[in-house]
Design goal:
By secondary structure, the chain is an alpha+beta fold. The protein is 33% helix and 20% strand. It has a three-stranded mixed beta sheet with strand order 2-1-5, with no helix packed on it.
Length: 139
């Protein structure tokens, strides 16, 4: 590892999983993905909005749809809930992750309704932002 400004994502439960900043620029993962720890802080999931490098204790989830912050923020709590089943001794191995199912709202054809998810979370994020703005004004 060399010091730099590229996120290094480790099996951490804090700081969006960022444990260091490095300059190594090979084997980088793209933005708009979710990192999910299978070792250490098992089940910790974070949305990555910048390119990054991930430790061996982290699986990177590449979406088969267009990922954005709103969709990621909807999916992440569901992933964390699914990961709670695994104790440190068991680890949440890739094969087990692939078998895990998370419930998502569906459209009339039974496919995940990403438009609904995005709109729902955009409203929730706006409410939260307004709350925090009002709270800051009180301080």
């Amino acid at each position: 590892m060399k010091d730099g400004n590229i996120r290094f994502i480790g099996a951490s439960a804090i700081n969006n999983g960022i444990t260091a900043y490095i300059s190594n620029d090979e084997h980088l993962h793209p933005q708009n993905t979710i990192t999910l720890s299978y070792n250490g802080s098992i089940g910790e999931a974070f949305y990555q909005d910048e390119i990054f490098w991930a430790s061996d204790d982290v699986n990177v989830l590449y979406p088969k749809f267009e990922m954005n912050k709103e969709i990621a923020f909807f999916i992440i709590p569901l992933l964390k809930t699914a990961g709670k089943r695994y104790a440190f001794i068991d680890k949440w191995k890739k094969e087990d992750m692939e078998k895990s199912k998370i419930p998502l709202p569906a459209d009339k054809d039974g496919n995940p309704d990403y438009e609904y998810i995005e709109n729902y979370m955009a409203k929730k994020l706006n409410v939260t932002k307004s709350f925090l703005t009002n709270l800051a004004a009180c301080v």
